[in-house]
Write a structure and sequence with these properties.
two-stranded antiparallel sheet, alpha+beta, 175 residues, 3-stranded mixed β-sheet, single chain, 6 helices
């Protein structure tokens, strides 16, 4: 009579049908040894959170780089400008939009008051960085200060704007 035997390796379960009368001591010893070696090898990279659950001890990409987090958002009726939309997208990310007045941010204040197009009221799933760039459009470039977790936008130079619009049209035609 064959006895089913289940073992798991790298998250995949295997089912063996074994005849216990034909198993030798060396097979059982080898199986026990590899089980012990396997559990010690993964002990450094994983932690057991439940009886059958091992979790890898790694930060996910979005935790290392919050602007790479995937977001999906529908803006409320109170969000009517691009500025409010950008602030809503940044909420909870740890980043903030540079609001001080200087030569670099005067244009940001102009961007802040622009109306939010209705086609952008629902956005995602996109990476946060891409969502911010999509909200403000191709006439603006997203800039970041990773040290202070600040974002701001600068107008694209006319040559770059023409090239960005051409690429945007090319991408939309391919879809």
């Amino acid at each position: 009579m064959n006895t089913p035997f289940i073992f798991t390796r790298s998250g995949t379960s295997f089912l063996l049908s074994l005849d216990p009368t034909r198993l030798g001591k060396s097979f059982i010893t080898t199986l026990a040894f590899f089980s012990l070696v396997n559990s010690n090898a993964i002990a450094d990279d994983y932690v057991q959170t439940d009886r059958y659950t091992l979790v890898r001890l790694n930060a996910v990409d979005a935790q290392r780089e919050p602007l790479q987090a995937v977001v999906t958002l529908t803006f409320g009726k109170s969000v009517t400008t691009l500025g409010k939309a950008v602030e809503e997208l940044l909420r909870g990310s740890g980043y903030h939009w540079q609001q001080e007045i200087s030569e670099a941010t005067v244009t940001d204040h102009m961007l802040y008051d622009l109306s939010l197009p209705s086609v952008l009221r629902t956005i995602g799933p996109l990476r946060l960085e891409d969502a911010l760039q999509t909200i403000v459009g191709t006439a603006w470039t997203l800039k970041t200060n990773e040290l202070q977790r600040i974002v701001w936008f600068e107008p694209v130079q006319s040559d770059e704007l023409v090239q960005a619009q051409a690429e945007s049209r090319k991408t939309s035609q391919e879809e």
